[in-house]
Structure formats: structure tokens, C-alpha cells
Amino acid sequence: MSIDVKGLVHVYHPGTPLETKALDGVTFRAEKGSWLAVVGHTGSGKSTLAQHLNGLLLPTEGSVTVDGIEVRRGEGSLRKVRQKVGLVFQYPEQQLFEETVFKEVSFGPRNWGVPTDTLNERVEEALGLVGIGSDLFEASPLRLSGGEKRRVAIASVLSSGPDYLVLDEPTAGLDSPGRRQLLDLLSNLKALGRGIIHITHDMELALGLADVILVLDEGRSALWGRPDIILGELLERDVRGLVIPDMVRFAGRLRELGYDVPLTWEPSVLAEAIDRSHER
Questions:
Q1: CA torsion sign, 229 to 231 to 236 to 237?
Q2: What does pTM read for this prediction?
């Protein structure tokens, strides 16, 4: 089960003076139960790509398929895809509008026509997954803390039962505890079998969490692969606007000086390798 993107091209305002190619031949696969990080600078095409994955945007060229269902108009395709792929925009708490947390999270499945008894179970399960207790079910979502609002917004997507969750800069604006809590939540969702597609500008964060990383540059696939493969490419490729973690640069310099150390973003791993090198 996977989301498959092949040769994806997206052009805004085609045939006008404002014509802009935001995506240019992007190809990758995001599997269910795995964590894909899409990394790139502002304007690299990350958010445009995110909107293709659940059919908010349609390809100019190429294709997007979700578990074998092509994202296109007609034959109920978009409805099926949107039930499978939940999209969480950046700062999703700004879109909260219902009177209570429970009503907020029930909005999606209610509009999908889910029966009331099943709907209530889904809402309670989704809120439980994000760590929102029953004492907050009747609270106004607008009165919650920033981290709680973010988790309620994610629960409102989870309650529709998606197999994949696409999140655009999900930790933006959160303090350190809120950030850690959210990342732990996403790791738990992955462990439960959901596919996580994490849109971010933070390469160090991606290296520490993702099973696979896609780096976008000017709408093109610049790098693609497991974190260990990406690490080897980072120091050899110049990707515009991509910030290489300082620890990776340091490890690369040590290797140039003859130290037998791995390319890593983790200080503890590098320190242990340096100690072993000195013992030889």
C-alpha cells in the first residue's frame, strides 16, 4: 500500500504572463507505515506537492496514485483519495471554528456521512491518540494552549480514518515540549501503521525521524533515499537554501583529516567514533 508519484508537473496560471512551474518531474513513493520527509527551502514546491497528495491540486502532467486510485476528476476518485489521505496545513489551529473540541473533531466524519454511534467512537479514539482527555471534550478549542490546539487540529483529520497523514511544517511555532509531544505522536501513528508524509525545511529533524527523505530544489527531486544515503550526498551536492547540519559538516571534515568516523548528525555517535579512533 503506497502513494506513488510519477513525473509530477504542476503549472500555476498556464498560458498567462503569471505562468509558474512549481513542480517539474517529481517522482517518489510513500509507503503505508513509513515516515517520508519532504525537505526543501521556501518556494521549492513542498506545499504544492502536499496538496497533490490528497487531490486539492491536480497534476498538469504526470500522475499521483493512492493505493492504486489515481488522483483525478470523475468516478469518485477524489472522494476516495481524500478519505485515505489526511492533510494538515501549517498552523492548522488557525482553522478551528466549532464551539467545542468534540464538535470540532466530529466535523469531518459527520460530513462524510458516518453514522452517529460510529462517529462518536471515531472522535473519542482520535482525541485519545493525540492525548486529549475527556475533560476537554466540551471545552472551546480556542481556549486551549498552542500545543493542545495543534493536537486537536490533527485529531480532526484523524477522525476521518485516513491511512496517510500529510503534515506541512507540523512543529512550526511550537515550544520545545509541544514540539517533542507532537513528534512522539507522529511516531506513534507510524507505529500503528499510518503513513507519515512530513513537509519540513529542517534537514536535521528529517534525518532523525524519517525512513526516507525527498529533497526538493526548484520543484525538482534533488535527492531521494534513506537518511544514510542522503548524508553521503549532502556534502557533495549543492542544493539551494538547504541548511546542512553543523554536525554533519564536522563529521565530513574529520573524515577528510583521516578519522574513521561515520557521517552523522548525532553528537553522541560522533563522539564515540572519535574515542574509538584514538584508542587504535
A1: positive
A2: 0.86
